[in-house]
Amino acid sequence: MTELAIKLFHPLVVAHIATGTVGLITLWVPVVGRKGSPTHKDWGKIFAWSLVATGVIAVGISTCSLIAPLGTHPFMDDEALVRNIFGWMMLYLATMTVALAWYGLQCIKNRREHRRHRNPVTLTLTTLMFLTALNCFVRGVFAEQILMAGIAIVGLAAGVLNTLFIYTDEPPPMEWMIQHSRGLVGAGISVYTAFLAFGAVNWIPAIALNPILWAVPCTLGIAYLLYHQFRITRMRQRRVAAA
């Protein structure tokens, strides 16, 4: 298993970079473009599915790192650190990327039939996101890795909030728009976090595990989500008042 993990690792990394690059670039078309336009829809789908592929591949990469930590990361000599950061934490980020990208797509698909969110795929991915986040948090606490524990809070919160929305019988009007953005922008935060942090291991190893570096995508993404949620809430209030 160890030899197989080492052999698979580099091809998976190449594939991960290829699909991740598509996601990194295409994110900005739906973010900047006019919401609801054909361009927004078409490029949004490309972005979402590229992140699903990126996350699935990252699950394979993290599994290889767990099986052969020093064989897949020969530039490091701390086996426990590699397992925690490149194994368990990357597994959590990969699962969250897939779960949120899928959730974002489902919010559009099921906007008129809310109960269809309660399908096996969505519920399974949401549960796995929460469990891998919890695992990352607990391991981070015991290993005294503030980075692991801190970044895991995002997945724990997303798991709870998404589940609450899924099991709300009658969500407020236009709530699906907020959830749609939360899912896909959340996936974007995840992939940009991985790009900056794991990429920094090769470019500037000294700052690779700096919490500030990891916090940048999360801070910017949350700021955008709050702004977007404010706009939709205002729009909803105006419609209610007009009615």
What is the end-to-end distance?
64 Å
Radius of gyration: 18 Å
Task: Give me the strand/helix succession.
Answer: HHHHHHHHH
What fraction of residues sit in β-strands? under 5%
Give the overall average pLDDT.
87
Estimate the helix proportion, in percent: over 70%
Gross morphology: elongated
- The overall number of domains is 1
Class by helix and strand content? mainly alpha
Q: Please count the helical segments.
A: 9
Instruction: List segments where confidence is low: pLDDT < 50 over at least 5 consecutive residues.
Output: none
**Could you give the count of β-strands?**
0
Largest sheet: none
Question: How would you summarize this macromolecular structure in one to three sentences?
Answer:
With 243 residues, this protein is an all-alpha fold. 82% of the residues lie in helices and 0% in strands.
Would you kindly provide a written description of the structure presented here, covering whatever features stand out?
There is one protein chain. This protein is an all-alpha fold. It has one domain (2-242). 82% of the residues lie in helices and 0% in strands. The protein is built from 9 helices and no strands. α3 crosses α8 (175-203) and α8 packs antiparallel against α9. It is elongated, with a radius of gyration of 18 Å. The termini are far apart.
